[in-house]
Amino acid sequence: MTGFGKAERLNDTRKMTVEIRTLNSRQADYTIKIPGAWKDRELEIRNEILGSLQRGKIELLITVEETADELMPQMNQTAIKSYYNQLADISAQYNIPMPPDILNSIIRLPDILSLERQSPDENEWQVLLECIREALRMANDFREQEGQALMKDMLKRIKLIEAYLIDVEKIEPQRIEYIKSRLQQNLVEFVGENNVDKNRFEQELIYYLDKISITEEKVRLRNHCSYFISTMDEGDGTGKKLGFIVQEIGREINTIGSKANNAEMQIIVIKMKDELEKIREQLQNIL
């Protein structure tokens, strides 16, 4: 599920920024980018992520900006002395006088100035840890808001499926009468009206209508839709369960379609399948 969180902390020596981005994924896939000074804390950072974000493609980026007071330049006196001695030897060997501003030239050479950085201590780690936790909370809040929108959309589509089921029930009496009339007409055309055994015809008709009855499918479909709605209210970790319920809903809709023998009912079944497919797509983003 998509999510984003960003938090910052500033202490006496460093400004720490934590950014977390998440995308939908069936597994937990972590990418952690942290400064080298914090590499020894990577396992703890992973545990924080695992405890907060159950799954998804998760990218965590930590950046640290050093403050100006800490980054005071330090002169490498050993390098200065080495450069001076080498230049003095060259001057004596080739009889070239040493310039009076030789020091200005030396300090421009490589490795003369360095920026001394202090290693992070336990107090800074606690500051960074709280920053990570805040970013994780923000990412979870972002994902929860998106989840609420997805749930609202799926609820609307389940309600549509229930409404289409009512439309199916309205058509069903006409469907039965049409099937009965068509069978009787075909029988008369093939064997003649006088040769039709009405009692036998009624028996066969009852048997056939029982085979294409969708009463059980309607009951199960309505129950599955109600169960889907109640399961949505259970909270976290319902994604897989909702997926199983959707499979059962699809099975009942398919059976109704195979038994329909009615063009108008088939159109309604297609509409139900369309709504169910959209629910399946949304479920890919639900934990």
Number of strands: 6
Query: If classified by CATH, what would the architecture of the largest domain be?
Result: Up-down Bundle
Query: What characteristic shape results from the CA principal axes?
Result: rod-shaped
* Termini gap: 8 Å
CATH class of the largest domain: Mainly Alpha
Helix content: 55-70%
Structural key phrases:
two-stranded antiparallel sheet; Ribosomal Protein S5, domain 2; 8 helices; Four Helix Bundle (Hemerythrin (Met), subunit A); 3 domains; rod-shaped; alpha+beta; 4-stranded mixed β-sheet; 287 residues
Question: TL;DR of this structure?
Answer:
The model has no long low-confidence stretch (mean pLDDT 83).
3D structure, described in words:
The protein is an alpha+beta fold. It has helices at residues 42-52, 77-94, 102-106, 122-191, 198-211, 215-232, 239-259, 263-283; strands at 3-10, 14-23, 28-33, 56-66, 73-75, 113-115. The chain folds into three domains: 3-69 and 120-143, Ribosomal Protein S5, domain 2; 73-115, no CATH class; 148-283, Four Helix Bundle (Hemerythrin (Met), subunit A) (Up-down Bundle), CATH 1.20.120. The protein has eight helices and six strands, in the order βββαββααβααααα. α1 links the parallel β3 and β4. α4 packs antiparallel against α6 (215-232) and α7 (239-259) packs antiparallel against α8. The longest helix is centred in the middle third of the chain and has 70 residues, at 122-191. It is rod-shaped, with a radius of gyration of 38 Å.
